Backbone:
């Protein structure tokens, strides 16, 4: 299960993997085993991760061109005008149908998240009629969580984001899903990745668990920046390094303009 | 075939206070902005607005004409959070129905099909339910007995949509990549008014696009407004993209009351769509 056991062959590429590249790998690992479903990461770093997974160990996944089609070939991110070869027409209506069907793994963000994975990107503040900060609204979070595999990329690992209680539950976590019984059977939060670490919910009571820490990060650092008690295994592995092939594909084909680095200010 | 051509002001004359108005498009994409501006110029008030929200929702929320908003999200796409909508929400006093964006479609579909609700799982376990206590669940009448969310029909008095092409009888054609849910908005409403980039003879539709693009049937359309660049500053491909510079200017006015007053006076108060276009061209 340790992801640190992969061979580190970055020497072959000349320059070692940077943090953003380790993060992309940690998020790409969330898709491992998904097979022929819609890989639907939202945001630059998640798109890099999804496309890398498809270009390497999950070749049967399909993904969108970001407009209204599924793209047959490896489409670069952050390259305006890159022409997609469509393999299926996919307007929003068809996308919603796929959400209901369940054959989808989505990656979203979160402004707040608690220990059971309850996600908030709707609004900040206790008063729903007058929020302190109105954010996106529910968007697709309620439907995504109850129907699809879901992972998260959270670029700010802090006690402001990882909180004991979220102000609004847009995407329900494991405690909320237990309350809805059978109807919650498709709920599956795979991974939460931050610039410090990767987390999952593979515990007896589905509390968030530290899965691996990125190179140079300590367990204490993760604990200090998390506003609830994470489950910490006795032995926390280091997040795995990209292989030489993965680095080459990420740097030269998927994100040649390094747009992913903007999320690591 | 009937001739349904009319002006923006003719459309507004058919609306009244307290109506529930659906607006087509998606975020900052193919919004019927010339009709939205006509709405802003009117005396109408106490409206309920139903929309996959973009600047239509931001402008109407700021105008004080809105009692209630129903949306899945409100975004300007290239500017993820709509600043005028945010301000209106944060000031309080606006009633909202905030739904999952897929569930929102089912509300339109239920209204279009004249059934009281459509079931789905979206919302279970989420605050979509606790924040909207009027939304109920329903138990499957079959052996599974599953408890599902009953998304209520979003019955609309009027819908406003914008198409690339239309004929005078009210058939509409989209030429961009996505229709979004404009056909459902039309079917969910008692009356629909459709603006378009260009009115063309019916026999010319196939010169513009394949038969699959003629998606709005005239039986759901009560009025057709020819409004070239009628979706400005939102995008309306392939006719034009989003006017990002203008959108930035619009968004920036949220932080600057003087800039808002100037923006309002120059663009929103322009007495007609033609006068608005003249201001845009003079920029």
Residues:
């Amino acid at each position: 299960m340790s992801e640190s056991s992969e061979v580190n062959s970055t020497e072959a590429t000349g320059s070692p993997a940077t943090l953003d590249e380790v993060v992309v790998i940690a998020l790409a690992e969330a898709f491992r085993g998904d097979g022929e479903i819609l890989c639907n990461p939202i945001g630059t770093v998640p798109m890099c991760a999804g496309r890398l997974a498809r270009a390497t160990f999950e070749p049967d996944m399909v993904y969108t061109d970001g407009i209204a089609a599924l793209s047959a070939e490896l489409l670069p991110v952050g390259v305006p005008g890159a022409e997609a070869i469509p393999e299926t027409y996919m307007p929003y209506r068809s996308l919603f149908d796929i959400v209901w069907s369940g054959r989808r793994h989505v990656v979203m963000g979160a402004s707040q998240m608690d220990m059971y994975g309850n996600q908030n990107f709707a609004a900040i503040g206790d008063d729903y009629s007058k929020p302190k900060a109105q954010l996106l609204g529910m968007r697709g979070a309620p439907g995504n969580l109850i129907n699809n595999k879901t992972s998260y990329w959270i670029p700010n690992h802090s006690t402001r984001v990882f909180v004991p209680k979220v102000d609004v539950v847009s995407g329900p976590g494991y405690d909320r899903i237990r309350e809805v019984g059978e109807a919650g059977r498709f709920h599956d939060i795979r991974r939460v990745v931050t610039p410090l670490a990767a987390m999952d919910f593979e515990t007896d009571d589905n509390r968030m668990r530290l899965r691996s820490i990125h190179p140079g990060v300590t367990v204490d650092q993760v604990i200090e920046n998390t506003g609830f008690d994470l489950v910490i295994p006795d032995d926390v592995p280091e997040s795995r390094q990209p292989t030489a092939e993965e680095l080459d594909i990420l740097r030269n084909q998927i994100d040649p303009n390094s747009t992913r680095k903007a999320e690591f200010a | 075939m009937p001739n349904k051509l009319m002006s923006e002001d003719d459309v507004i004359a058919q609306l009244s206070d307290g109506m529930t108005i659906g607006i087509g498009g998606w975020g900052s994409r193919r919004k019927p902005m010339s009709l939205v501006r006509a709405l802003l110029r009117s005396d109408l008030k106490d409206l309920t607005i139903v929309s996959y929200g973009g600047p239509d929702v931001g402008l109407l929320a700021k105008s004080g004409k809105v009692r209630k908003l129903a949306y899945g999200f409100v975004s300007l796409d290239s500017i993820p959070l709509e600043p005028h909508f945010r301000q209106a929400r944060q000031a309080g006093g606006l009633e909202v129905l905030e739904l999952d964006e897929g569930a929102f479609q089912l509300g339109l579909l239920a209204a279009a099909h004249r059934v009281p609700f459509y079931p789905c799982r979206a919302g279970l376990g989420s605050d979509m339910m606790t924040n909207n206590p009027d939304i109920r669940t329903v138990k499957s009448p079959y052996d599974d007995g599953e408890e599902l969310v009953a998304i209520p029909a979003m019955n609309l008095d009027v819908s406003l949509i914008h198409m690339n092409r239309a004929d005078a009888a009210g058939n509409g054609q989209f030429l961009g990549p996505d229709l979004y849910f404009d056909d459902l908005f039309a079917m969910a409403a008692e009356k629909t008014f459709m603006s378009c980039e260009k009115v063309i003879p019916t026999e010319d539709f196939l010169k513009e696009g394949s038969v699959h693009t003629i998606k709005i049937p005239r039986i759901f359309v009560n009025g057709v407004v020819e409004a070239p660049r009628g979706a400005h500053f939102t995008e309306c491909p392939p006719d034009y993209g989003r006017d990002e510079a203008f959108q930035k200017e619009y968004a920036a006015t949220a932080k600057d009351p003087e800039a808002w007053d100037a923006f309002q006076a120059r663009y929103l108060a322009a007495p007609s769509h033609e006068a608005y276009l003249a201001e845009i061209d003079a920029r």
